[in-house]
């Protein structure tokens, strides 16, 4: 049985300078009694601290730890509670990871150790303990990166499952010799108790001003250039919003009594708080600004271009709000998530924050069932408390300085109701939203929000729980991924099986499987945001996508009249998603736009492939049986894209179009004559071609000792050919072997012919990367294309 490994990595600040050597101005007896330990806590010249972060790696002790991976084997246990994504409601619940360590002596050597250990005059191993010294030297770890790495014996650490978090707190060392670190997911940085927007302004009115004053001076002196922009909106004393310009500490009031407030007199010492103003801004940009500029989330975690593509495609709205007081970033994010009908969370595997807009799950989305989940784990649970029959939206805020949840503070309301459902369920279920983000003229936004809430929750969504093995299933569940579920209890009114469309909201990785939770995603009666610019986005792994069939489940069939009116289609394979074929050969097509008659003439189709489109690898050929010439050729690889309709293709640097590798040829038999007696030696099977879905190697030929089967083709490499078997003479095994099968081809490459003398079997040809290349115009061609093309 494969044995599990567990590592934890922590990135810590560490100074690259040497004590007392310029630019470090520290000096013994002047800045401190002993030299520092090159950490922030012990630094004696913080102005010149030059951070060169170090990574400490810890492991759970075992006798099979890899020798080429240095780690400190002090982990006692780990406890992980996964986060929960809240679909269209808020930022959800944060994941929590607790790592417990055993304290132990430490020599202060190695990564992040003591540079000046030779000068200390004591034996570091006998003085103190690792975690005691860590606590004294590195107390500023909150928010630092922590990685939980799970793998198996024989894997390189780079191949292991890595999950990313940030340190939240620590405790110890305790009397029992233990130390613990608690980590959260990155969105913990946005918690209301840690991040506010706008930031608190520390300036105040130097003197009182009248209701008609046009300027004032900020106090204390010089604070203007330190904290205030040169223009914007300001909240005076929590009573009035003004527009201003600034030079030094002098503030000129260009407009008084703005945003529904009244110009009044203000006393000396009244606060002068800068407001945060979003004026017609894409919600993707709003969330990005809140998270990066106010919560300190690294921009590398936010694929902003992808976010904006999604909001432009499925939302098409902008939002306006004035935030006059420091407000929790999480609160603001929750508001825009709900009112923009968005979904987001932390993807700890890919170290990114995905964003999506609530919408239907595609009918051909990958499926989980009782056949590919762990036995007995796929189950559903009703959630009656989530039912909503009426959505009441208050919008058009009168005064941002008045209570957010007071109906009197809004000019407009909009009601969306499913009254018929109230009769069925026996009561109303009312949800009220107070929106600072929708202006008085934004009824369309309010109506869309209400429609989505009611269409999604008039029938309360079910919760789906299931467990799935990490390997051998062909589908890797992803947080926020959209899937379909089928189980024995899921039936329609006739008793026929009925699939449940759902999105994964909770995912807990263990050493051998994933524990998953999803929520049903049902929508009734939502009109498309844009009837001309139709978009199909494939954002989770899919197989054998017939674009026309998928299109017709989302939009009406395209007519010649539609084409004349400018209706067009964009197909997006999102970054991180893969469209693959499950069959090899020319008919095995991953992304199929169909024959020429599929679409009306002149219909414009644009394809953006930021993820991957992959053909299946060809199966390896069968090895020849003893005393036979029946070795078979490797199978042809599958096709990535087929079209007979004009396409404009965007292939950014992250995109891939790769056909399946051809299967290796089966090995020939070999007949050896020894003094008139023949040893009949069968051939080995050919290796499987490369492709996303596993491709089997060919079966070895039959004989006294049969040839071995070829190895499976992997995602990026073809499988090795199987070794030939052996014959016998008078019941004694003869040492010679039959022919070795050919290796399977890499993506876009043909399989190799079989090896050794005899009747060679050819390797299978590579699949086509694009079948119909003459119909394709590449507007962007920066990604990877592998495999031949055909017209």
Structural features, described:
- The chain is mainly beta and 791 residues long.
- The protein folds into six domains: 4-83 and 93-183, no CATH class; 199-274; 279-357, no CATH class; 367-383 and 461-520, no CATH class; 385-457; 530-791, no CATH class.
- It contains nine helices and 49 strands.
- The protein has a seven-stranded antiparallel sheet with strand order 2-1-7-8-9-6-3, with no helix packed on it. The chain has a six-stranded antiparallel sheet with strand order 11-12-15-14-13-16. Strands 22-28-29-30-27-23 form a six-stranded mixed sheet, with no helix packed on it.
- Helix 3 runs antiparallel to helix 4 (304-314).
- The longest helix has 15 residues, at 443-457.
- The chain starts with a strand and ends with a strand.
- The mean pLDDT is 92.
Summarize the structure.
The protein contains 9 helices and 49 strands.
Q: What is the element layout, followed by pairings?
A:
Blueprint lengths: L3 E9 L41 E6 L15 E7 L2 E3 L3 E4 L2 E7 L27 H8 L7 E8 L8 E11 L6 E7 L11 E2 L6 E2 L9 E5 L3 H5 L3 E6 L3 E8 L2 E9 L13 E3 L1 E6 L1 H12 L9 H11 L4 E5 L3 E2 H11 L2 E3 L10 E3 L9 E3 L9 E3 L8 E8 L12 E8 L1 H7 L4 E5 L8 H15 L5 E7 L12 E5 L13 E10 L3 E8 L12 E6 L3 E2 L1 E2 H8 L5 H5 L3 E6 L4 E3 L8 E4 L11 E6 L2 E3 L24 E4 L4 E5 L4 E3 L11 E5 L2 E5 L44 E4 L2 E6 L32 E2 L4 E6 L2 E3 L2 E2 L1
Parallel strand pairs: 22-28, 24-26, 31-34, 32-35, 33-36, 34-37, 35-38, 36-39, 37-40, 38-41, 39-46, 40-47, 41-48, 46-49
Antiparallel strand pairs: 1-2, 1-7, 3-6, 4-5, 6-9, 7-8, 8-9, 10-19, 11-12, 12-15, 13-14, 13-16, 14-15, 17-18, 20-21, 23-27, 24-25, 27-30, 28-29, 29-30, 42-43, 44-45
Helix pairs in contact: 3-4, 3-5
């Amino acid at each position: 049985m494969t044995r599990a490994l567990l590592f934890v990595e922590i990135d810590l600040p560490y100074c690259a300078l040497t004590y007392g050597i310029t630019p470090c101005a520290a000096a013994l007896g002047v800045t401190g009694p002993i030299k520092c330990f090159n950490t922030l806590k012990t630094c004696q010249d913080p102005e010149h601290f030059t951070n060169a972060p170090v990574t400490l790696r810890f492991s759970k002790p075992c006798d099979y730890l890899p020798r080429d991976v240095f780690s400190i084997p002090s982990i006692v246990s780990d406890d992980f509670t996964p986060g929960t994504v809240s679909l269209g409601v808020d930022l959800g619940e944060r994941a929590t990871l607790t790592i417990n360590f055993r304290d132990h002596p430490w020599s202060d050597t190695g990564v992040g150790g003591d540079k000046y250990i030779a000068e200390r005059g004591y034996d570091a191993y006998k003085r103190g303990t690792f975690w005691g010294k860590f606590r004294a030297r590195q107390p500023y770890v909150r928010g630092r990166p922590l990685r939980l790495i799970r793998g198996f014996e024989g894997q390189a650490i780079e191949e292991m499952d890595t999950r990313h978090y940030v340190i939240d707190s620590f405790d110890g060392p305790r009397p029992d010799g233990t130390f613990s670190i608690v980590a959260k997911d990155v969105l913990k940085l946005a918690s209301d108790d840690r991040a506010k927007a706008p930031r608190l302004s520390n300036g105040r009115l130097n003197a009182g001003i009248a209701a008609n004053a046009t300027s004032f001076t900020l106090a204390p002196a010089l604070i203007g250039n330190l904290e205030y922009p040169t223009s914007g909106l300001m909240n005076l004393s929590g009573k009035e919003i003004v527009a201003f310009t600034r030079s030094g500490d002098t503030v000129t009031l260009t407009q008084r009594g703005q945003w529904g407030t009244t110009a009044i007199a203000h006393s000396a010492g009244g606060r002068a708080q800068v407001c945060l103003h979003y004026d017609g801004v894409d919600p993707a940009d709003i969330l990005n600004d809140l998270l990066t500029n106010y919560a300190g989330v690294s921009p590398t975690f936010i694929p902003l271009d992808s976010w904006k593509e999604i909001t432009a495609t499925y939302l098409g709205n902008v939002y306006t709000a004035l935030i006059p007081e420091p407000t929790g970033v999480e609160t603001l994010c929750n508001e825009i998530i709900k009112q923009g009908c968005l979904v987001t969370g932390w993807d700890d595997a890919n170290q990114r924050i995905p964003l999506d807009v609530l919408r239907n799950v595609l009918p051909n989305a990958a499926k989980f069932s009782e056949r590919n989940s762990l036995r007995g784990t796929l189950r559903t649970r009703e959630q009656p408390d989530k039912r909503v029959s009426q959505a009441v939206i208050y919008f058009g805020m009168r005064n941002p300085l008045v209570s957010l949840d007071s109906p009197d503070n809004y000019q407009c309301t909009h009601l969306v109701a499913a009254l018929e459902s109230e009769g069925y369920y026996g009561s109303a279920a009312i949800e009220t939203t107070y929106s600072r983000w929708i202006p008085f003229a934004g009824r369309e936004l309010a109506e869309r929000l209400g429609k989505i809430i009611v269409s999604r929750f008039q029938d309360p969504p079910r919760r789906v729980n299931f467990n799935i093995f990490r390997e051998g299933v062909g589908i890797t569940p992803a947080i926020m991924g959209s899937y379909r579920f089928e189980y024995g209890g899921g039936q329609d009114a006739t008793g026929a099986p009925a699939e449940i469309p759902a999105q994964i909201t909770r995912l807990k990785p263990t050493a051998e499987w994933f524990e998953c939770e999803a929520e049903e995603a049902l929508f009734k009666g939502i009109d498309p945001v844009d009837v001309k610019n139709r978009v199909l986005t494939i954002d989770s792994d899919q197989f054998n996508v017939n674009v026309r069939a998928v299109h017709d489940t989302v939009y009406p069939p395209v007519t010649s009249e539609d084409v004349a009116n400018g209706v067009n289609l964009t197909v997006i394979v999102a970054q991180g998603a893969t469209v693959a074929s499950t069959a090899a050969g020319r008919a095995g097509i991953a992304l199929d736009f169909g024959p020429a008659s599929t679409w009306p003439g002149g219909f414009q189709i644009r394809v953006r492939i930021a993820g991957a489109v992959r053909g299946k690898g060809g199966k390896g050929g069968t090895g020849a049986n003893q005393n036979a010439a029946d070795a078979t050729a490797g199978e042809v690889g599958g096709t990535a894209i087929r079209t007979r309709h004009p396409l404009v293709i965007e292939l950014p640097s992250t995109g891939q179009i790769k056909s399946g590798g051809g299967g290796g040829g089966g090995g020939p038999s070999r007949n050896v004559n020894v003094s008139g007696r023949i040893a009949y030696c069968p051939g080995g099977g050919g290796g499987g071609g490369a492709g996303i879905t596993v491709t089997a190697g060919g079966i070895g030929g039959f004989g006294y000792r049969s040839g071995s089967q070829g190895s499976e083709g992997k995602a990026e490499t073809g499988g090795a050919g199987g070794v030939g078997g052996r014959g016998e003479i008078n019941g004694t095994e003869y040492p010679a072997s039959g022919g070795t099968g050919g290796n399977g081809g890499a993506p876009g490459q043909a399989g190799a012919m079989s090896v050794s003398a005899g009747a060679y079997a050819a390797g299978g040809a590579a699949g086509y990367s694009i079948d119909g290349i003459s119909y394709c115009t590449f507007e962007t061609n920066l990604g990877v294309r592998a495999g031949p093309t055909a017209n």
